[in-house]
Amino acid sequence: MKNAMITKSAHHSPVCPPWYYRLAIALARPIYRLLVWKKSRTRTTYQREAAERFGRAFLPVPSAVDNLQNTHDNQAQFGRFSQGLPAGNGRLIWCHAVSLGEINTAFPMLKILLNQGFRLWITSTTQTGFARTAALFADELGKSVNHSFVPVDSAPVVRRFLRHVQPALAVFIETELWATTLYELKRAKIPAVMVNARLSEKSYASYAKFATVSAGMMANLTKIIAQDEKSAERFVALGASDDKVVRAPSLKWAQAGQWSAAHDALYAKVCAWLGVDGNSKISTNANFSNTANPRRPIWVMASTHDTEECLALLAHQKVLSCEPNALLILVPRHPERFDDVAKLCAELGFAPARRAHDDAIKADTQVYLADSMGELLVWYRTADVAVVAGSFVDVGGHNPIEPASFAKPVIMGEFVKNCELLVQKLAQAGALMQVKNTPDELANALLVYLCDQQKAERAGQAGKTLTERYANAAWVQASLTLAVLGDEM
Predict the structure, then answer these.
(1) Could you tell me if 60 and 164 lie in one domain?
(2) What is the CATH classification number for the domain harbouring 230?
(3) For a Cys-Cys bond, which of 374, 385, 438, 468 suits 299, CB 3.0-4.6 Å?
């Protein structure tokens, strides 16, 4: 049953948010302005952030680009699939990706859109998302791409933003939606698509409490591309019509790429530190007992949050009791915590080498603190086993596809709501193991792979095979997204 069902006629006309929602946003604006000042006033980007969030000023709109060579690149990568995509002809797409995870997820699809000749304006809610966008699109910024902090959900601000950017299409990644923004898009006849959409039972319950607001947002969306059947059903229950909700493989299946020349350079340096051949390292899981050609057992704990570093270090102590030459590469999720994690390492008896200091990995290095941004792929490729964090605390888990694509066995915790279907598929294939949030459990799982080369290779290959099967997920969602341009224009 649909909650607060929208009539057929209302489905085709903008649905204005109720008065109490608009009043709440108006009352919250000065508080939000204060929060932005408090959090960002010491940052070099503060003046720009304040101007963009409240619609006072924006960077210039990127200029149109010639898409002939880029379209050829799409065809080379996706073959016959890309031939069905419409040419951008310089039209601009606004993409909203809340934070680092969302922009990473969207990146493969956004590259497809660029290669079809579309321009992009990308907005972020967080500083990490903003910085990640700048890093991912460093070569395109100011040309075919520009970015800003997302405008607040106030009608005058959103209208100024839309007048400046003039998008032909708006794309929202995963779950963050704003009622006034969707209303203004619908009012301006700009189609809005929610891609890679997911809606957990908990999130659905939250939206359902504000049934009128949620139903209006569902009506103002043009299309919802859901990751799974349960999410699709929940969007319909919130008020989305059956014809606008479709299913497609998650964009996270397409996150195996993004390897760059900078990654090559760092990987070569790491291999030199370790004294291994980079090409042989790709196949991973060497026989560590082979005295003729010994190699260190290496595991990575990636994208860690508070308390997860402590878990990793305590587990590493136990691993070292069985594998004294083992190396832990520790990759915190947020840069503001890098120094705190370094102090924690010291408190637990480790003297970490630090990427931020350009330290080398030496024979006696037991913990390498990869306190850098944008280099995670190198650490996944370097390691023999990958532990994907955000899953040992109630964050929801980060994407296991990247390590799986490098044929690495994957270990995660029990909190995986952000990537539940991916985890299920990888676990069913024998590529991923879930463990409880204790050092003993984590250490035991690590030693299963670090001490059994054949088991590790089978798990890694199973994951790689699965990622290759769904490698066209970005093209599928790009195709479904761009289809609305034919419907609306």
Answers:
(1) yes
(2) 3.40.50.11720
(3) 385
